[in-house]
Amino acid sequence: MALVEQQQFEAVQAVRIGRFTRRFNTTVLVYRLGNTLIDCGPPNQWKVLQAWLEAHPPQQLLLTHHHEDHCGNAAALKARLGVRVLAPEASLPFLRNGFPIQLYRQIVWGVPEPVAAEALPEKIELPEGFTLIPIPAPGHAPDMTCFLEPNQGWLFTGDLYISDRPQYLRKEENPHQEMESLRHVLSYNFQVVFCAHRGMLPQGREAIQRKLDYLVSLRQQAQSLHRQGYSLRAIQHRLLGRESEMSWITMGHFSKRNLIEALLQPPKENARKPAVEAGLR
Ligand SMILES: [Zn+2]
């Protein structure tokens, strides 16, 4: 039940796993290219992942960022299967020391065991002849990193994409930085996107462009309404509608309000101020 589906695109294999299988954002894909895994799913799906890997254990694991649905089995892969774990430099302290995980995330994904990972090199040459180049793409998380296969035109995007038209934002995400990252990855040559939640997107380049256009336009509209004197709540209702159950299930950690509030903050700001302090209502 928790293994939702398997996918294959040319040499890339994938498995979708998750405890709650009805929504795409409560399941996650683990990608495999030869003997390399890209992300490894949530800790509560170890048994399912282990069964998928049993016949051919991988040799190395590349992590896109530290979130528990991506790094959750890194410790087990390293300790039990001897897999080498590589992660962005900025992920290493999170992986080693842990990080705050809200209750809803613990219920959906579980809590990962700490793991000592090695920092990614500038380029990873796979024994199967593929090359993966890490491209930092912060915004969703400060350590968010994509992997480009330049000869195939593939981009493994972790959580950079997820949706064309996001309606919600986690409190600590920075959408201004994410827009810069979307713009930055578009400066590389790629066509196919491998998203950790949406799966394989043959028209991935266009999807990344659509997300960028949407966020730029949403920011312009929010700022324009703010200049006209509308409250944060009124702007949210007008552009995204009322909050859904997502907001109360997550106790406001994942909400429409967060997205509008963040878009109205000055773009350079990394640590966001509370709405009141920033002159928002
Ligand atoms: Zn994430």
CATH homologous superfamily designation: Ribonuclease Z/Hydroxyacylglutathione hydrolase-like
Distance between the termini: 44 Å
Which regions are unreliable across 5 or more consecutive residues at pLDDT < 50?
270-281
The level-1 CATH class: Alpha Beta
Which strand order do you get reading across the main beta sheet?
A: 1-2-3-4-5-6-7
Number of helices: 10
The name of the CATH architecture is 4-Layer Sandwich
Biggest sheet architecture: 7 strands, mixed
Cofactors and ligands present? zinc ion
Structural class, judged by helices and strands? alpha/beta
Tally the structural domains.
1
Can you tell me about this structure?
This protein is of the alpha/beta class and 281 residues long. It has a single domain (3-215), classed as Ribonuclease Z/Hydroxyacylglutathione hydrolase-like (Metallo-beta-lactamase, Chain A). Helix content is 32%, strand content 21%. It is built from 10 helices and 15 strands. It has helices spanning 46-53, 68-71, 74-81, 92-97, 103-109, 175-185, 204-227, 232-239, 245-249, 256-263, and strands spanning 3-9, 12-17, 28-33, 36-38, 60-62, 84-87, 118-119, 124-125, 131-136, 145-149, 154-158, 169-170, 192-195, 199-201, 254-255. It has a 7-stranded mixed beta sheet. A 6-stranded mixed beta sheet has the order 8-9-10-11-13-14, with helices on one face. Strands 12-15 form a two-stranded antiparallel ribbon. β9 and β10 form a beta hairpin. α6 packs antiparallel against α7 and α8 (232-239) packs across α10 (256-263). The longest helix is centred in the last third of the chain and has 24 residues, at 204-227. It is globular. The chain starts with a strand and ends in an 18-residue tail after the last helix. 40% of the residues are buried. The model is unreliable at 270-281 (pLDDT under 50). It binds zinc ion (ZN). Zinc ion binds at residues 65, 67, 140-141, 159.
